[in-house]
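step 4 of 6: structure.
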Amino acid sequence: DVKVTQSSRYLVKRTGEKVFLECVQDMDHENMFWYRQDPGLGLRLIYFSYDVKMKEKGDIPEGYSVSREKKERFSLILESASTNQTSMYLCASSLRLGGQAFFGQGTRLTVV
Amino acid sequence: SQQGEEDPQALSIQEGENATMNCSYKTSINNLQWYRQNSGRGLVHLILIRSNEREKHSGRLRVTLDTSKKSSSLLITASRAADTASYFCATDAGVQGAQKLVFGQGTRLTINP
């Protein structure tokens, strides 16, 4: 059974903290993605990676960075968390860009 | 950038009825996909239809694609309470080297027993 696993379901962090969201996939997929989901705004792409150490900005990269040191792992970093980064974060992977995506269970992050 | 736009935003029907959701998009595509999301969970892929296909079936799901109108519809027949979820369409950018999935805002479907 294919799997994308996000390290936490729920996370509460303080304003100004550095936050790491981890995502691991076991499907040997080249492509990995980070989205955030907010009511009324749908899913918005933050960053994606099409190979190890390669990354591309999505639609809303400001305030975020990513790291992909190994093929199976894609990390989202909030350098200095702010309250407007309170959201549901979804990681996904795919074999082909534009192809079927497999999603993790989501991390609901609250910044207080 | 919002490529896909679902309509309606919310739909409430009785169990056993059919549910139809629509998606419109703006640019050319290679394929269009539909996903389902149960409350507070990740998205699950339902079906993919390629730009050269007009209709596709999977169990109780039927998807149509009209590239001339840049629109797609998802029909769920004989709905069940377990179909209650949000449904999203997703399109790829259709330009080589820039293909990424762009999602709409979703349709929230409620099936009443």
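step 5 of 6: annotate
 - Chain B has a mean pLDDT of 90.
 - The interface with chain A takes residues 1-2, 30-31, 33, 35, 40-45, 48, 88, 90, 92-94, 99-106 of chain B (CB under 8 Å).
step 6 of 6: archive
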